[in-house]
Amino acid sequence: MIPIVLCGGSGTRLWPVSRAACPKQFVDLVGESLLAKTLKRLRRLGEPWVVATAESRTLTLRALKELDIAGERALFEPVGRNTAPAVALACRWLELAGLGEEVAGIFPADHLIADEENFHAACRLAVQCAEQGEVVTLGIRPTIAATGYGYIEAESEVFAQAGELTAHRSLGFREKPDSATAESFLAAGNFYWNAGMFLFRVSTMAEHFARLMPQLWSALAELTADGSNLEQIYSKLEAESLDYGVMEHLRQQVVIPCSIGWSDLGSWDEMARLDPAEASTSADAPVLFEQNAHGNYLFPYRDRLYGLVGVEDLLVVDTADALLIARKGASQEVKGLVEQLRAAGRSEATEHVYEHRPWGGFEILRDTAQFKSKILWVDAGQQLSYQSHRHRAEHWVVVSGHPEVVLDDEVLRPQPGEAVYIPLGAKHRIRNPTDEPVQIVEVQLGTYFGEDDIIRYEDDYDRA
Questions:
Q1: Residue-range domains of the chain with CATH
Q2: To 10 degrees, the CA torsion angle through 301, 306, 310, 316?
């Protein structure tokens, strides 16, 4: 089976931890990123492919590299167009690679699955059904009358079985219901949440695209083997979901009801409901102290100390530059708050104080009119571009590791605790020739500290 991970989405409801520049699938919410968890979970079924947007290329490739997955297994959409184009692109790419008769599975990158054994068993049964030409949906057994998910209705007759798991013909998809309808679905016992996990033979899904979304499929049929015309093709595509474009119109399909400890972690209320064993904290010691306070949830920023007095059922989510406080049950409204921030032109709506780069990344410590300070990290074997600045000089203090600094073609090897001064206009770069990460504190002095004040002369990542 070929697992395909869809890695789009911005996770707005998990602001301020999840932001457009670093969405929830890339953030350490549960001890590691959700994307890393998803890739590890799927590797037992086959080596995964990832479909992501070009905007998240650096974050995606970093995640793949950390798990020793080849970067060539990532497909980058020039711009996000929802799930139907993403799945169609993956199918067309696999066809071009001669894998059209393989079974593929579609899995979101940002979901949590606690019971991986049951998940793998459900996928194995789904593969058996897909090999018979079926399109299979993993249906999550509902635990509450949720109104935030679509549902799938299943026939009672068993189509296929493996152990205690059964597959059934689907009677169709149902839109997100109101409360009364959701209660009736839960009482009926044959309605299951649609978690967006589908398995099928690639050629089968290609036929469905050709029949149900002919414009989309005919456009992608023009894709060249090297993908060089992908941007041109995507400029013509309309945004559409796979559910609406294909799944809701299939005359015949299969659903496998399963209980796999699933959560889409779509809000801070969902995070607060997690089993403590699944949750993560960046602190080594307790950071929350409460006095006459009950039922509160804290997502801390590093090892900062928090005290709550006389309050209950609060969600407290802290980051370096933004703090969210909400009542439990109201976290779906965070999306509206982010829209307010966007309208006000606040960078905190979409950007963090840290940024990832192909060579490593940095975190902004202070940003004032007089100076800007950062901590840089350079990954093993990587180097920054050879560059200069028009408006600022820089002071570097090595915190850890053993970097090489190239300053106007002279190679310096500062040790931890030593400093290097980069004059205004000087050509410079940091490289890390070792197997250990390098950390450097940088202080900028000058008249302008924007990231666009860079003249590149050489670059390993084609940005010169």
A1: 2-266 (3.90.550.10), 283-343 (no CATH), 354-458 (2.60.120.10)
A2: 0
